[in-house]
Structures are given as structure tokens and as C-alpha cells.
Design brief:
227 residues, alpha/beta, Rossmann fold, Arc Repressor Mutant, subunit A, 2 domains, 4-stranded antiparallel sheet, 8 helices, 12 strands, 46% helix, elongated
Length: 227
């Protein structure tokens, strides 16, 4: 079993939420449970989540809307929908946004098997991809926090490496300022925002030798790595 996995559980049925949380934590998962779509989105933005279990029918924000908003922030996090709806159009919509779709009622054995299958697939891909990432003529060694160009090494700080990885993962798309601040700094205070601006400036300088790599400021929203 893959260990140290953090699950976001978005489920408005209090009893089912408790049962799922207890069973998943009993086999080693860490579960953050939200009872509606809005609080689930806030949990995702402020927590380090490895996989999402999302009920489709929820108050304040339905599961499909929540998943689309999560996808704007993180294109790779696995999403499994939990739902009593089994109409073909609902299944197709769910699979167009997420990675799996489980209809209620379901057994814990089935849920755990689906979780492990999806985690093995996605975490293996992440390990393969994030060991070294090519950014045009640059090579980004994620774990060692190093950037290479023409044999020259540029050492990155932890936060520079985290920020660059988030930019790479949302390449040519918006990295929301608030999301990045909460993920890396823990909150989106004014002082942390100024600190992030400094790191963005440093990253721009590191890539300045290649005019085809740009980190664009999207006013009031965040940044885009364009290449």
C-alpha cells in the first residue's frame, strides 16, 4: 500500500463522511473531510492533498464545479467522484473532469482498490516526470533544487523550487497567486505576497538568457509560465 497519502473527502452526508474517514484512516490514510463544495475548495487550497474523493451532489458548490476549480489549480491531482447518479451523461461528465467514478452504494474494499490503483499510476508518473524536467534548454532537478543550463548549475532555494514546479505544472495556464501563497507560505498575507514577488523576479533572471521563456504577471490574479 502507498503510504503517507492525504485525501480530501468532500461529502455532505455526515454519517457517510464519518464512516469513510474512520475506515480510510484505519488503513493509514490522512483524511480532510469537508461537508460542502466551498469548504472543500478552501481545504484544497490550504492543505497538501494527494487525491480527492468528491461527492457529486453537494450544497453551496456541486462536485463537478468543485473539480473544475481544483483542475484550474492542479492539473494532475487524482479525482474520484462518489455519487448515487449513474446516468450515462453524468458518468461521462465525471470522467471528462476526473479520473474515476464510483456509484453508491460501494464497499470499502472497492474504494481502497480504486485508490491504490489510481495512486500507483499517478505517483509513478510523477516520479518519472519530476526527477528532471526539461524547460527548453534548461534542466530542472526538482529533488535537488537545481537548474542547469549549458553545464552551469544554478542552486535554488526550497521556495524557489516549489514555485518553479507549480509554474511548470500549470505551464501556459494561470497559477493563481492566492493558491500558490497558501500552498508554499501557508497564508496569503501582504508580506508573503511581497516575498513571492521577489522569488518571481529571481526566477525571471534565471531564465533571462532564453527570451522564449517568460513568467508573465496576470494583474491581480497570478502568473503564467509561457514557453
Amino acid at each position: 500500500m502507498i503510504t503517507n497519502v492525504k485525501i480530501l473527502l468532500a461529502e455532505d452526508d455526515v454519517n457517510l463522511g464519518k464512516v469513510l474517514t474512520l475506515n480510510l484512516e484505519a488503513v493509514g490514510y490522512t483524511v480532510s473531510h469537508a461537508g460542502n463544495g466551498e469548504s472543500a475548495y478552501e481545504l484544497f487550497c490550504t492543505s497538501d492533498i494527494d487525491i480527492c474523493l468528491i461527492d457529486v451532489m453537494m450544497p453551496l458548490k456541486d462536485g463537478f464545479t468543485l473539480a473544475r476549480e481544483i483542475r484550474k489549480l492542479d492539473k494532475k491531482v487524482p479525482i474520484i467522484f462518489l455519487t448515487a447518479k449513474n446516468m450515462e451523461e453524468d458518468v461521462l461528465e465525471g470522467l471528462s473532469i476526473g479520473d474515476d467514478y464510483i456509484t453508491k452504494p460501494f464497499s470499502m474494499d472497492v474504494l481502497q482498490a480504486r485508490l491504490q490503483t489510481l495512486l500507483r499510476r499517478t505517483m509513478t508518473k510523477d516520479d518519472e516526470v519530476t526527477q528532471t524536467i526539461k524547460i527548453r534548454n534548461f534542466t530542472f532537478e526538482v529533488e535537488h533544487q537545481r537548474l542547469w543550463i549549458n553545464g552551469e548549475e544554478k542552486k535554488l532555494t526550497s521556495r524557489e523550487a516549489e514555485l518553479l514546479l507549480m509554474l511548470v505544472n500549470t505551464k501556459n495556464d494561470l497559477l493563481e497567486r492566492g493558491y500558490a501563497l497558501k500552498k508554499i507560505w501557508g497564508d496569503d498575507s501582504y508580506y508573503n505576497a511581497r516575498s513571492m514577488d521577489v522569488y518571481i523576479t529571481k526566477l525571471r533572471k534565471l531564465f533571462s538568457s532564453d527570451p522564449n521563456i517568460q513568467i508573465i504577471n496576470v494583474h491581480g490574479l497570478g502568473f503564467k509560465l509561457v514557453m
